[in-house]
Backbone:
């Protein structure tokens, strides 16, 4: 690995750029210990939690994205191919926000079939192929308006977020919200508000938490409909995780309890996807519980939940990725079994390659394993996985 491959090297670089800030001062501002900063900068520790990333970035007057740098291999065909389509997607979103409407190239039946194709790609987490459909889908959906536009804009938000374009994902989510409100569809309003909270950067966890709370309050009047209840459950899950990152454990537990209550009443979706492919139900709640436990550093709890969850009850590949990613993080950071952690990460990467490679917590966990392997040798599988993050583990 080169100097810039570790987050510790970047923290040290930016700390010294901030007027020679000492480790003790940075630790105090970030709410961690000086010895922790020292170990991270020396490459002996990785950063395991989103809240720690937020605290250190804020102390250094950076965004989390600036602190992390751009992860991943720029020659990765998934990312390179998707990047070629992003300008056209952005242009289409701007047109819609400006009120421009083109003559549609598809009638309603053709557009619905194209949306189904996009949904199938989203199920498989094939965001590269999905991104190539969106530049033409967006203007056609805008011409027809209503729920069709809300659905396509939601797909766009999900695709862009998983490819690392959060600022554009937020624009797409807002287009979806406007369309859903015009259609007076409570379920799609809930979906769009969920997309908005998901698109916000991790340093805006407090804002995302409050936005989820407002959305929950607004949707209560329509809460009898099953589709709306599923989105209420998803908003509770989002609020539970953002409350954890924001340092509000009591709020997190309350939201998680509400999501669990709703999930037990609804059960897992019969088709493995449910409304808008969110997969809300008991299985999805436990997957989010695993993510929350990992954020808290409760790795024993992650492993315990992992034994109870059967992710193949859900169809979307992104949920499978979440399961294996959190399991791998728990195994890697607890030091229980690097081999088992590697297998978990490889399964996460197979389930959803682009989102996995863009996940900073996955990157830190893999780098932790690479550093531990220095005493022995880095396995071929671990070298391949590290390469997904743009790291040459043979150097």
Residues:
């Amino acid at each position: 690995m080169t100097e810039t491959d570790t987050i510790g090297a970047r923290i040290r670089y930016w700390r010294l750029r901030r007027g020679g800030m000492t480790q003790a001062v940075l630790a105090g501002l970030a709410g961690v210990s000086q010895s922790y900063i020292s170990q991270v900068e020396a490459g002996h520790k990785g950063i395991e939690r989103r809240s720690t990333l937020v605290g250190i970035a804020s102390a250094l007057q950076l965004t989390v994205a600036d602190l992390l740098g751009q992860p991943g291999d720029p020659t990765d065909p998934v990312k390179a191919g998707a990047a070629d389509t992003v300008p056209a997607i952005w242009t289409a979103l701007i047109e819609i926000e400006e009120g421009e409407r083109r003559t549609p190239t598809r009638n309603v039946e053709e557009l619905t079939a194209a949306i189904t194709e996009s949904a199938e790609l989203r199920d498989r987490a094939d965001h590269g192929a999905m991104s190539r459909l969106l530049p033409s889908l967006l203007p056609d959906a805008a011409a027809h308006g209503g729920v069709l536009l809300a659905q396509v804009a939601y797909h766009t938000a999900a695709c862009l977020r998983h490819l690392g374009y959060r600022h554009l994902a937020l624009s797409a989510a807002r287009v979806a919200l406007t369309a859903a409100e015009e259609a007076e569809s409570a379920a799609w309003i809930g979906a769009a508000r969920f997309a908005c909270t998901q698109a916000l950067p991790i340093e805006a966890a407090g804002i995302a938490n409050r936005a989820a709370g407002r959305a929950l309050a607004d949707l209560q009047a329509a809460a009898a409909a099953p589709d709306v209840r599923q989105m209420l459950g998803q908003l509770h899950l989002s609020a539970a995780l953002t409350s954890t990152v924001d340092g509000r454990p009591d709020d997190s537990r309350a939201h998680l309890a509400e999501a669990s209550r709703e999930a037990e009443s609804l059960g897992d979706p019969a088709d493995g996807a449910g409304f808008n492919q969110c997969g809300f139900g008991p299985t999805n709640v436990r997957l989010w519980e695993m993510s929350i436990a990992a954020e808290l550093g409760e790795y024993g709890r992650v492993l315990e939940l992992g034994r109870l969850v059967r992710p193949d009850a859900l169809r979307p590949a992104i949920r499978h990725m979440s399961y294996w990613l959190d399991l791998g993080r728990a195994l890697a950071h607890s030091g229980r079994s690097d081999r088992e952690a590697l297998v978990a990460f490889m399964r996460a990467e197979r389930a959803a390659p682009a989102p996995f490679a863009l996940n900073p917590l996955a990157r830190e966990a893999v780098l932790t394993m690479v550093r531990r392997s220095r005493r022995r040798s880095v396995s071929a599988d671990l070298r391949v996985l590290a390469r997904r993050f743009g790291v040459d583990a043979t150097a």
In short: The chain has four domains: 3-68, 74-199, 204-260, 267-395.
